[in-house]
Write a structure and sequence with these properties.
The complex is a heterotrimer of chains A (about 160), B (about 575) and C (about 550). With about 575 residues, chain B is an alpha/beta fold. Helix content of chain B is about 35%, strand content about 15%. In chain B, the strands form 5 sheets. A 5-stranded mixed beta sheet of chain B has the order 2-1-5-3-4. In chain B, α9 (about 270-290) packs across α11 (about 325-340) and α9 packs across α15 (about 425-440). Chain C has about 550 residues and is an alpha/beta fold. The chains are: A alpha+beta (about 160), B alpha/beta (about 575), C alpha/beta (about 550). At the A-C interface, α2, α4 and α5 of A face α2, β8, β12, β16 and α18 of C. The complex binds flavin mononucleotide, iron/sulfur cluster (SF4) (8 copies) and FE2/S2 (inorganic) cluster (3 copies). One iron/sulfur cluster binds near residues 31, 34, 65, 218 and 380 of chain C. The site of one iron/sulfur cluster (SF4) has 14 residues of chain B, from α4.
Chain lengths: ~160, ~575, ~550
């Protein structure tokens, strides 16, 4: 098991405990802190918030947003919304997959990159769109995507 | 009560407001197929098999969860509806293993019945059965998630009815699967092995862990002296598997059948129940009349409840009766007292319990205390459902087999022992003996009816020698919380406890509704099964456990007196906190 | 800011109107997408250029002007001249614009694009844009309460609280003919009326559906980011009408800027006494809370959304009971879409009759579409109902970039359907689109040209719906996956006529047997492709024996 000291869990639990039904908000905070929802932290959160572990797993596995394992250092999200799809997003995924040697949803063995597909980030006018960590790349061209991603990762 | 008038398939119906279309249709002899709906549970609306058409809008709605409205015109069957139902069955089959021949639910499966009714002989859909492992870690209930049709019944049972939260849905869409909380094995999860999930599952996705083959194997072993006991609730339920009317008491036939199957001695858990009452009533009177340790006293003969308490409510340990459950008492005595009396090496004795219960499979290895005889006191525990199959395998015609008597040494019982099998029974039985202990005489009327019935929490006040005894009876673990909360609140404030004596049974209806009982239990059935027990109670020779002469004899010959050191060693246990999620 | 009374609100508004104005205003669009297109350096460049030159100009960050394809967008207004819009602006261009336009009053023609005024038309005319929902988007600084108040903000709330009864508000809504913009088009007045009548005196909730899951649609994001107070004002009015003291904004987590702007706007409104206890001195208490989605399209469905707010899996529950009877936490609840709420204040201020006069048939007012795909200018357009698809695609958005003919338009996203070029003269309304086998949906409009294939597009949508199925009910959970398998067989060149029949059989099962609209509508894109482009399927089939 990953050595995750769930040090911030009590504060997160305290913030949300008395707000009815706020499990998802607390999990957002948890993932915001650790980059994913570590098992120990989920256990602790459940105890402190009085939410059964079953409920936490039901929720974390239902919603796409939550990750149960630590993703790579840089998260590359290729938009697969309709606009981006029509404007060549599949080609972008293919290029990145080939270069990084991983499929969408996977992390490189050196834990540097996590490649994922997302649904519409609301910038369809700029399709196809790729985000690297927080940075949005607009109107991306297949020939340039790999270089752009590396540049972003360096800059970070 | 306000009623609504509507039309179903052209026929007028009038039903109380709030009645679902599914229920209302029965009034005009229309059976709408339903798969995910269970009478005990609120509808999950998961399968879609029950769709009907609302004539005015042409829309299809689910009959299981849609209340009939005034003036509604409903069509339950037309070619398109039937095509859709067929389509749903075909889809389900495409994601389900074709394993009826090797499935515990064969011929007893709601999905199989549905498939049979629609008779889909060929389909051009790919088979997309998920590759998920079988979980037999508890050795009590087995989980085969491949066979799950995601009806959601078990989840509702485990989370809402039982408040255990051991099971949950994981993932979503086509990947949706049932799994123990946190995706660990069921044994590591908070599961208390009550088996209610298995009793409510429409398919073979959750079943009892089958030990019948072990029993057959042991019966064939010439070195072994196989003995058996049957629990109270088994006798009034097993008949359902053989077409007897619900609630028929088959005690004598079961004794006969078990002898034919090769058991050398046939005992009865009801004897153990009488013994439990003697011990527990003494415990109660010590606390109640003599102020020794804390009140309320809480019953302990349901292992699922014990497990639940240790996991979620360990602060209640001081209140728990230390009595083992009746079948463990019989097991302990079989390998000591009976072994001595019958001059059999206890090592050769193989004790089989036949229980309405899946938790008992877990209980027999719960702790070192379950080896008080020096051997495992009960070797195997099988459920009513397993016994029914074994009787069929043994070629025994239960309908015509003549009744026999048990081996009385550990087999004779009072009516008090019998009613253990239903909610409130332990309480009622204990009150009879407590009354005697306090007043020196049997209660003028042994029926303490406040303990009876299917209300989730039953409360009552009983007068014994001018003193008021306040009792509470809860069944279904989901009903326990509120009771314990009141106990805790009173404790915290230093007030007198709200009750002196509390009975808890994990299963709705108590053991008559146990997780290992024949399928299809509803409250209607639970009541009838319980009636079977109450009838035996009134018809019996003795109404009170202390009047059972064989109980008196075992004390005289062997145990000394209730709560003696020997009794403590053999008949009592202890508890330790086992907080959940230890991983 | 002090807590306003109605009179103070008016005084404040008058003060804002009287405040001296700078000679020029420069507005830089800084929504998520503007940022993505590089608007931040443009904003910086403007700031530096202004500082260096000492010109008398005000620099404003605004929300979305709607011409996404032309981002970064900058609007410059000098003196009383009409505003000029610039598109595809970079830092260098920005400096040039400051120097030339702001400095010398001469517009820079190289970057000029149509302005908002150029695109719109009063009175509303089919074929031209008309901005009710987007009235403030790209115009005001979304982070400024003053900007909103200066543009009649919270006037409708004031009017409602001081001069109207809930019944009157409902009557105005009825006269307006406003229908829900979240997709289904349920009459808004009726929803408000039913929820108002339900279990009076009990705790009720009003919920804003900002889940916007349709992949390729971002109308709601633009409003939340560009004019957050208009949605908040609509919600407060709704809360007052139905008798709710609590409102919840459910916003998808993929929209962090929208969340930030809404949270900020809520804080501003609270500080100004427009939220919280005793709003505008009326005795009405109402507050708002933001809850995030977590990546599940089905959570746009109202019952699933409520389950999600309750901290559970977002699986729908059967209706009845409807949310108006038993919604969030079992209490009467009302859910409306972002765009629906944004329509409320103008309807109150200008009257239901004004709104009801716009549009055709039972479809009134305007609708915002996010037009993307093969169009010259992709972006947000708000058009009066009754505008034809052709007017939107070929007129407002300029047709395909290649100049090739449009092949089809998809509306309604994964729940909608394809409309072939031959039917582009259909006027846009709930009824007309439904007749063609599509739906209005929430406003996604995808344009395809000849290079696109509808079998592949319908597979794309199906794949989306399968991915997003909550898995609760068998027809949708298994049906979608099986249909996808059959289509893949066809796409692999191994399909037969029999497979087409199987697709239709599964489709019927899903349409009739699924619990919620997600499963019921999942087959739509496939069915519409089969209906209008059957040849594209037949071409792929193995010659039948
Ligand atoms: C699968 C599915 C997704 C939906 N997504 C949204 C959404 O993202 N936004 C929205 O406003 N309504 C969405 N709806 C419609 C809502 O259920 C609901 O009808 C709507 O929010 C009501 O608001 P309105 O009356 O203002 O349209 C969706 C419905 C379904 C079935
Ligand atoms: S669960 Fe039912 S249908 Fe499935 S294999 Fe077992 S008996 Fe057959
Ligand atoms: S029902 Fe059919 S498959 Fe099953 S055992 Fe009989 S013949 Fe074989
Ligand atoms: S046996 Fe009881 S506790 Fe265990 S999973 Fe089943 S219902 Fe839950
Ligand atoms: S295991 Fe059984 S009860 Fe549980 S969801 Fe699956 S089919 Fe239903
Ligand atoms: S009631 Fe339950 S615990 Fe008691 S004897 Fe019967 S089966 Fe055993
Ligand atoms: S109530 Fe009876 S059948 Fe149910 S778990 Fe307890 S002992 Fe077993
Ligand atoms: S939605 Fe379009 S116009 Fe609006 S800010 Fe985004 S890209 Fe610009
Ligand atoms: S139709 Fe699909 S999304 Fe809707 S409840 Fe059923 S499985 Fe879930
Ligand atoms: S489709 Fe890619 S951002 Fe919308
Ligand atoms: S989906 Fe990418 S811009 Fe809308
Ligand atoms: S029985 Fe009604 S949906 Fe399953």
């Amino acid at each position: 098991m990953a050595a995750t000291a769930p040090a911030d869990v009590p504060a997160i639990a305290k913030k949300w405990k008395d707000k009815r039904g706020s499990l998802i908000m607390a999990l957002h905070d948890l993932q915001g802190r650790y980059g994913y929802v570590p098992r120990d932290a989920a256990l602790e959160l459940g105890k402190l918030m009085g939410v059964p572990l079953a409920r936490i797993y039901e929720v974390t596995t239902f919603y796409n947003f939550f990750k149960l394992e630590a993703p790579g250092k840089h998260i590359i999200s290729v938009c697969m919304g309709t606009a981006c799809y029509l404007k060549g997003a599949p080609e972008l995924v293919a290029r990145l997959s080939e270069k990084l040697g991983i499929k969408a949803g996977e992390t490189t063995p050196d834990k540097q990159f996590h490649l994922q597909q997302v649904r519409c980030i609301g910038c369809c006018g700029l399709a196809p769109v790729v985000t690297v960590n927080e940075k949005v790349l607009a109107k991306v061209k297949p020939a340039e995507i790999v270089d752009q991603v590396y540049a972003c990762a360096k800059g970070a | 009560m306000t009623t609504v008038k509507a039309i179903i398939n052209g026929l007028p119906v009038e039903v109380p407001e709030g009645t679902t279309i599914l229920e209302a249709a029965k009034q005009v002899s229309v059976k709408i197929p339903a798969l995910c709906k269970h009478p005990d549970l609120h509808p999950t609306a998961a399968c879609g098999i029950c769709i009907v058409r609302i004539k005015a809008t042409g829309r299809t709605l689910r009959a299981c969860c849609t209340p009939l409205e005034h003036g509604m015109e409903v069509i339950t069957h037309d070619p398109e509806i039937v095509a859709v139902r067929r389509g749903i069955v075909e889809l389900m089959m495409s994601k389900h293993p074709n394993e009826c021949l090797t499935c515990a639910r064969n011929q007893n499966c709601e999905l199989q019945t549905m498939c049979a009714d629609f008779n889909i002989e060929k389909s051009d859909l790919d088979s997309i059965v998920p590759d998920l492992p079988l979980d037999e870690s508890t050795k009590a209930v087995s989980l085969d998630p491949r066979k799950c049709i995601s009806c959601g019944r078990c989840i509702q049972v485990c989370q809402e009815m039982q408040n255990v939260w051991a099971l949950c849905f994981m993932e979503r869409g086509i990947e949706t699967r049932i799994a123990p909380a946190g995706d660990i094995s069921l044994a590591e999860s908070p599961c208390v092995k009550c088996g209610q999930c298995s009793a409510h599952c429409p398919t073979g996705a959750i079943t009892e862990y089958d030990e019948a083959p072990t029993v057959w194997q042991k019966l064939m072993d010439p070195e072994l002296h196989c003995v058996v006991q049957i629990a109270p609730a088994v006798r009034v339920a097993i008949g359902e598997a053989f077409g007897f009317p619900v609630g028929t008491n088959l005690t004598g036939k079961l004794y006969a059948a078990l002898r034919r199957m090769g058991f050398k001695a046939v005992f009865d858990t009801n004897f153990g129940a009488d013994l439990t009452i003697l011990e527990e009533a003494h415990e109660f009177v010590e606390r109640f009349a003599h102020g020794k340790s804390e009140l309320p006293l809480i019953t302990s003969c349901c292992p699922a409840w014990v497990d639940f308490m240790e996991k979620y409510h360990a602060d209640m340990i001081p209140h728990f009766s230390t009595c083992k459950s009746p079948h463990e008492m019989v097991g302990a005595l079989a390998k000591t007292y009976y072994a001595q009396q019958a001059k059999i090496d206890p090592q050769r004795i193989f004790m089989v319990s036949i229980m309405p219960c899946t938790a008992k499979k877990f209980e027999i290895q719960r702790s070192e205390d379950m080896r008080s005889s020096g051997y495992q006191d009960v070797d195997v525990s099988i459920t009513t459902r397993e016994l029914a199959r074994m009787i069929k395998q043994a070629g025994i015609d239960l309908r015509s087999i003549p009744e026999e008597q048990p081996d009385h040494m550990l087999g004779a019982y009072s009516g008090a022992g019998t009613i253990f099998g239903t909610t409130g029974g332990v309480m009622e039985a204990a009150l009879r003996t407590a009354y005697k202990l306090v007043t020196g005489a049997n209660p003028p009327r042994p029926d303490f009816t406040v303990t009876r019935g299917l209300k989730g929490v039953k409360e009552g006040r009983i007068e014994i020698a001018g003193k008021e005894v306040r009792i509470a009876v809860a069944h279904g673990l989901g009903n326990v919380e509120s009771v314990l909360e009141r106990v805790r609140a009173a404790k915290q404030k230093g007030e007198t406890p709200p009750w002196h004596f509390i009975e808890v049974m994990a299963c709705p209806g108590g053991c008559v509704g146990g997780g290992g009982q024949p399928y299809g239990a509803t409250d209607e059935l639970r009541v009838k099964r319980a009636q079977g027990l109450y009838q035996e109670d009134t018809a019996g020779l003795w109404r009170c456990s202390h009047d059972n002469p064989y109980i008196q004899k075992v004390y005289a010959d062997f145990l000394g007196h209730p709560l003696s050191e020997k009794a403590h060693h053999l008949l009592h246990t202890h508890y330790i906190p086992r907080p959940v999620y230890q991983r | 800011m002090p807590k306003f009374t109605p009179a103070e609100l008016d005084a404040h508004r008058a003060k804002l109107a009287a405040a001296p104005r700078k000679r020029a205003i420069i507005k830089v669009g800084l929504n998520t997408c503007g940022d993505a297109a590089g608007a931040l350096p443009v904003y910086q460049a403007a700031k530096e250029a202004l500082q260096a030159s000492g010109l008398d100009a005000q620099l404003v960050r605004t929300g979305c002007a709607g011409m996404c394809g032309l981002e970064p967008l900058v609007e410059v207004q000098v003196g009383s001249d009409p505003a000029v819009m610039y598109g595809r602006v970079n830092a260098e261009a920005m400096r040039e614009i400051v120097a030339q336009h702001v400095g010398q009053g001469k517009a820079v023609d190289a970057y000029r694009v149509p302005s908002i005024a150029d695109m719109c038309c009063e009175p509303p005319t089919p074929g031209k844009q008309y901005r009710i929902v987007l009235r403030n988007c790209g115009v005001i600084d979304p982070e400024s309460l003053d900007d909103y108040i200066a543009r009649d903000g919270y006037q409708a709330l004031k009017q409602v609280l001081t001069q109207m009864t809930p019944e009157q508000v409902i009557a105005e809504l009825e006269a307006s003919g406003l229908r829900g913009r979240g997709g289904a088009g349920f009459p808004t007045f009726l929803k408000w009326k039913i929820t108002r009548a339900s279990r009076p005196g009990e705790q009720k909730y009003i919920i804003c559906n900002g889940d916007e899951g349709d992949p390729g649609a971002y109308m709601d994001r633009s409003v939340l980011e560009g004019d957050p107070h208009s949605v908040i004002e609509g919600m407060i009015i709704g809360g007052w009408v139905i008798g709710a003291s609590k409102g919840i904004f459910y916003i998808r987590a993929e929209y962090p800027l929208a969340v930030e702007r809404i949270e900020k706007a809520i804080r501003q409104a609270r500080a100004a006494g427009l939220l919280g206890s005793n709003i505008l001195g009326s005795g009405f208490d109402f507050d708002l809370e933001v809850r995030l989605g977590a990546g599940a399209f089905v959570c746009g469905e109202e019952t699933a959304l409520m389950a999600s707010i309750e901290g559970k899996r977002g699986t729908p529950w059967p209706r009845p009971p409807y949310p108006a009877q038993k919604g969030l936490w079992g209490q009467p609840s009302m859910i409306n879409n972002v765009e629906t709420f944004a329509n409320i204040p103008p309807i109150i201020l200008r009257g239901g009759a004004w709104f009801g006069a716009i549009g055709i048939g039972r479809s009134k007012g305007t609708k915002v579409f996010a037009v993307t795909g093969k169009v010259k200018v992709s972006g947000l357009v708000e058009i009066p109902m009754g505008t034809t698809l052709r007017q939107v695609v070929e007129g407002i958005c300029g047709g395909t970039p290649s100049g090739k003919p449009v092949k089809a338009v998809q509306t309604g996203g994964p729940s909608g359907g394809l409309i072939p070029a031959s039917l582009l003269d259909t006027p846009i309304s709930y009824e007309e689109l439904a007749k063609l086998g599509s739906i209005m949906g929430s406003g996604g409009m995808i344009v395809m040209d000849e290079t696109d294939n509808t079998v592949e597009l319908s597979r794309f949508y199906l794949d989306f719906s399968v991915d997003e199925s909550c898995g609760k009910c068998a027809p949708c959970r298994i049906g979608g996956t099986q249909m996808l398998r059959v289509i893949d067989r066809v796409l692999a060149g191994k399909g037969t006529k029999q497979d087409i029949a199987t697709i239709k059989r599964i489709a019927l099962t899903m349409q009739r047997g699924s619990l919620c609209a997600l499963g019921q509508t999942t087959p739509n894109p496939v069915l519409s492709s089969l209906k209008y482009f059957e040849h594209e399927w037949n071409e792929r089939l193995v010659a039948s024996k």
